[in-house]
Structure formats: C-alpha cells, structure tokens
Design brief:
With 421 residues, this protein is mainly β. It has one domain: 6 Propeller (Neuraminidase), CATH 2.120.10.30. Helix content is 0%, strand content 58%. The strands form ten sheets. Strands 8-9-12-13-16-17 form a six-stranded antiparallel beta sheet, with no helix packed on it. Strands 14-15-18-19-22-23 form a six-stranded antiparallel beta sheet, with no helix packed on it. Strands 26-27-30-31-34-35 form a six-stranded antiparallel beta sheet, with no helix packed on it. Strand 28 and strand 29 form a beta hairpin. The radius of gyration is 20 Å and the shape is globular.
C-alpha cells in the first residue's frame, strides 16, 4: 500500500499458511481497511489469529502511518467438522467498503456454520453470502446472510451514503434475500441487494437469463443507487450466444463472455444496462468506480477484438488478454475505452476514482506491456501495475511492481492505497 508512483509505507501480514487480501477501502482519515482470508495461524501487527475452519475471513485496520492497530476474524470449523478430523469450512471475505464512520462493511460467503462476533449463522445451502459490519474499533456488531439450497456469494460492496451497504454477487436456484425470494433464470444469476445500517436486507434484484451471470464490482452512484459490473457467459452445455435480462433491458452476448455495466436505483430497479465484447472473445468487468458525475469507470480484461460502444479494441497477443478501462456515462453509454498490455496475459482488477474525473487502476501483466507511452517489463511470470487514466481516457503514467495488486482505493489527497497479494 502506498501513494501513487512511489510507496511511502508498506505493511505485511504473516502466517503459517495462506494469508490473502481481497479488498481495500479508505478509512476517511488517511488509513486503510483491508479484507481477505487466511488459514492456520497469522499475525496482523500485534494481533495473532488462528483460523477456526479451512479459511476464515479477516478485516484489519492500517493507520495513516502504516501500522496495523487491530484485526478481527469471522468463520468457524463448521458442523461437519464435528464428525471430520480438521476444519472443513471455507469462509472467505472478499469486498470491503468504508461505513462513513471509521468502520467497514464486508461481504463474502460462508459454508455450513460461521461465527461473526456474537452472531452465529447456518448456511441454507452449500454456501451463503454474508454481509457483516465491523466498527471503527474492530468489533463485529452484526451480520446477515442471503442464499438458498445451492451457492450464493457476495463479491463487491459499497457504502450507500446513508449508513447502509449495496452488495453484488451471484446465486443459483432459489435464494432468500431478507423477505425477497429470487430464483435464478440460468444456472447462475447476478444479484444486487441493499442492507440497512442496522443489518436488514430491505430489497434485492437479480439479473441473468440463459447464461451464467455474475456481479463482481459495485459502486455507489451518489444518489442512493448502485453502478454494477460483471459478466454473462455461455452455459457449459450451450453453443448459443448467452442472453441475459437486466430489468427491461435484454442483452445478447456477442462472444462466449461479455462484460456488463448496469445501474440500479435507490429503490432497487434496474433502469439501464450496457455490454462490451465481441465475437469469439471473452470480456469481463471486475472493478468499478463512480466518476463523480453519475457515471462509471470500469476495468477488466478482454481477448481478441471487442467493441466498447463505438470504440473497437484488439488485444495485442493472439489468444491472450489485455486490460481495459472504459467510461460509462450516467445515461448508460460507453463514450471511451482504452487498453493496456502486450503479447501475454494482462488484466485490470481494481479501480478507484482519482477525485478529478479520472481513475487509478491496478492489476497485473506479463512480459512486455504498453501502458500508453510507458513500456513495462515483468521481472517474473507476472508483475503488478498501477496506472493513472485521465478523465478524457488517456494513460499518463504507469508503474510496475513485483507484488500482485488486486484492489485500490483513493487516499483522499491524490494518492492511492493498494492491496497486494
């Protein structure tokens, strides 16, 4: 984690096994809130945690000076572990958002049974999505679940501007979101739900069709609603182009996988959706940020030749993917898009608004890759990158790193907080 173009501090966590960060959010005071998951024993500053199951979720706070002052875990060994030697429960934390008061909202999924502070939840199916609230002092004061007989997972989360959270992810079959019951139209549908400041799910909406549809990234639109990105792709057994419904908008995939961006109003209605992709290509959206004017800045990857509104891009390498960044206006049109990469695999993962209409973007690249006029060469099979994209859609700088950055947040003063693997 650090400022743009050069790092002024960094912290690390250690463990006896896997310790992986998934999300990062600015805490409003120069520091960072980080989510992820770990196995075995792990140290977070002076806090030592031991996973109760195979993987537990964690949240930690890093101060403006780069010190980890608290960390908390969520998860359990699960009911099955009472009969099986060793923990069997996977309870990872993925997306994180600042709550506006120094604490955090976190989403992910849990299997079987999991503990979130004093709250114990039992999954209704194989895995349920969860949302938990962590206070500014590191206490979990509530948690809520969503799911059904199969699999549901939260992937992205954003503050709603009024103390609650907007969440996206995916689910299969019939699933309950508070008092709302949804049934997937395909094998897997995307969902967006709203969770109040007290931990109640008051609405949920789905998107999908004869396809596998996933919501991956979400941002507050500045007016109580959400901007969401993800992808919809072919069913395994189908050769037809995937079709998905987003409210009253029906999108037909141009290739085997298309990226989408949709807008969900504060009352839970999808009022527009737009896609990006091309024939014989795979295109997916991973990260999204509000542009400060009702629109969205989006990053992801594509291979082959793909259309982003009126802009056509062709990946540099045959059979490999390039990172993309595109801008979607408040009315749902793509007005610019750009690519970064080379002959190998290059992906955009995280994106944050820079406070001036542009974007700070992170991801990874392999071999030689072009970022505007900057050429970077990876030192290993894959290196991380951070680049800045202006409000008009130009890359004006990029830096590489041997670490793998997956999430990025604006630090409020022109810099960036970066979560690396």
């Amino acid at each position: 984690m650090g400022t743009i173009e050069s790092a002024n501090w960094a912290v690390q966590t250690r463990g006896t096994d896997l310790v992986l960060g998934s999300g990062i959010a600015y805490d409003g005071a120069g520091g960072a809130l980080v989510s992820g998951y770990f196995s075995g024993q792990a140290s977070f500053g002076s806090t030592f945690l031991t996973s109760r199951g195979t993987e537990d979720a964690f949240v930690m706070h890093v101060t403006a000076s780069g010190a980890i002052d608290w960390a908390v875990q969520a998860g359990d060994h699960g009911l099955l572990a009472d009969h099986i030697d060793g923990g069997t429960s996977h309870d990872p934390g993925y997306g994180i958002a600042h709550d506006g008061a120094g604490g955090a909202f976190v989403t992910g999924f849990f299997m079987d049974r999991a503990s979130f502070g004093s709250t114990s939840l039992d999954s209704r199916g194989v895995a349920d999505a969860f949302v938990m609230h962590v206070t500014a002092s590191g206490g979990i004061d509530w948690a809520v679940q969503a799911g059904g007989a199969y699999v549901a997972s939260g992937c992205g989360i954003a503050h709603d501007g009024a103390g609650g959270a907007l969440v996206t992810g995916y689910f299969s079959g019939q699933a309950s979101f508070g008092s709302t019951t949804l049934t997937s139209r395909g094998t897997q549908d995307a969902f967006v739900m709203h969770v109040t400041a007290s931990g109640a799910i008051d609405w949920a909406v789905q998107a999908g069709g004869a396809s596998l549809t996933s919501g991956r990234g979400i941002a507050h639109d500045g007016a109580g609603g959400a901007l969401v990105t993800g992808d919809f792709r072919l069913e395994v057994e189908s050769r037809a182009h995937p079709v998905a419904s987003f409210g009253s908008t029906s999108l037909t995939g141009q290739g085997s996988c298309d990226a989408f961006v949709m807008h969900v109003t504060a009352s839970g209605a999808i009022d527009w959706a737009v896609q990006a992709g091309g024939a014989d290509t795979n295109t997916a959206g991973y990260g999204i940020a509000h542009d400060g004017a009702g629109g969205a800045l989006v990053t992801g990857d594509f291979d082959g030749k793909a259309s982003f509104g009126s802009t056509s891009l062709t990946s540099h390498g045959q059979g490999s993917c390039d990172a993309f960044v595109m801008h979607v206006t408040a009315s749902g049109s793509i007005d610019w898009a750009l690519q970064a990469g080379g002959a190998s695999v290059d992906q955009g993962w995280g994106i944050a608004h820079d406070g001036a209409g542009g974007a700070l973007v992170t991801g990874y690249f392999s071999g030689h890759a072009s970022f505007g006029s900057t050429l970077l060469t990876s030192h290993d099979r894959a290196d991380g990158f951070v680049m800045h994209v202006t409000a008009s859609g130009a890359i004006d700088w990029a830096v590489g790193s041997s670490a793998h950055p997956y999430a990025i947040a604006h630090d409020g003063v022109g810099g960036a907080l970066i979560r690396v693997a």
